[in-house]
């Protein structure tokens, strides 16, 4: 694949990139949504109805993510960001910090982060690495209103203006390890293609979305490093 040097690259990742690090995806067999009801653990209504169930769900995921290590796919994206001489933005739907652990710097977590807490009262975000339970006090406003810093269904993803601007100028859009079923992320390929970007999917199996010009199939820990090598060789 030939992409001109200094081209603007936008990468979107989903749960599939962390699967080989031992973290469950959502919609594969045995995925999180097979074990837990989205309405109970990933909506504001569910949190209001039973906050302890939600705190427990994210505490379990935070503990698993803390024990997980980045795999060769995360490492390859950090290598690409470091080697690329043009604009590079890594947008992730994931709430684990495996991209950061791999050395990626410019990571945009559009669905929030497990190792952060959000104050329901003042809206401040604070680093949170251990278990987060009901009644924890916000360090900014001192009210006992901290919740998981996760964007739930029905809530607005973070940094959409920054994302729209990046998609408007992207010359290459790469979607990795996502089923492309949840908007707005699922619509990013259409925006990028509409602005003239090359579009590539890297996934265990192709999702079949005709808006992707190229698809690299296979487990991310193999297919992403191969893709990055191709990209860097083709400059
Ligand atoms: N390598 C590459 N891709 C993989 C691998 C792997 N080892 N294992 C699974 N995949 C692919 C699956 O084929 C699927 O296309 O990763 C994708 C995972 O899809 P989902 O489970 O739907 O996860 P994701 O696309 O990230 O979900 C998007 O939905 O519930 C919300 O907020 C949640 O951010 C999440 C969003």
Automatic annotation (TrEMBL):
Residue sites binding NAD(+) per the record: 14-33, 93-96, 177-179, 203-205, 220
Q: What does the UniProt entry state concerning the protein's domains?
A: 2 residues (Tyr-58 and Arg-61) present in a large hydrophobic pocket are probably involved in substrate specificity. They are important for desuccinylation activity, but dispensable for deacetylation activity.
Q: Which Gene3D superfamilies match?
A: SIR2/SIRT2 'Small Domain, TPP-binding domain
Entry cofactors: Zn(2+)
The superkingdom listed in its UniProt entry is: Bacteria
GO molecular function term, any single one: zinc ion binding
According to its UniProt record, which reaction does this protein catalyse? Answer: N(6)-succinyl-L-lysyl-[protein] + NAD(+) + H2O = 2''-O-succinyl-ADP-D-ribose + nicotinamide + L-lysyl-[protein]; N(6)-acetyl-L-lysyl-[protein] + NAD(+) + H2O = 2''-O-acetyl-ADP-D-ribose + nicotinamide + L-lysyl-[protein]
What the protein does comes down to: NAD-dependent lysine deacetylase and desuccinylase that specifically removes acetyl and succinyl groups on target proteins. Modulates the activities of several proteins which are inactive in their acylated form.
Deacetylase sirtuin-type domain ranges (all copies): 1-234
UniProt-annotated catalytic positions: 111
Q: What is its main location?
A: cytoplasm
EC class (word)? transferase
Q: Could you tell me where this protein is found in the cell?
A: Cytoplasm
Q: Which positions in this protein are listed as binding substrate?
A: 58, 61
Name of the gene this protein is made from: cobB
> What is the name attached to this protein's record?
NAD-dependent protein deacylase
Q: EC no.?
A: 2.3.1.286
* Record text on cofactor binding: Binds 1 zinc ion per subunit.
Q: Which InterPro entries match?
A: DHS-like_NAD/FAD-binding_dom, NAD-dep_sirtuin_deacylases, Sirtuin, Sirtuin_cat_small_dom_sf, Sirtuin_class_III, Ssirtuin_cat_dom
Please provide the record's keywords in A-Z order: Cytoplasm, Metal-binding, NAD, Transferase, Zinc
Q: Which family is this protein grouped under?
A: Belongs to the sirtuin family. Class III subfamily.
Annotated GO CC locations: cytoplasm
User: Which sites bind Zn(2+)?
Assistant: 119, 122, 138, 141
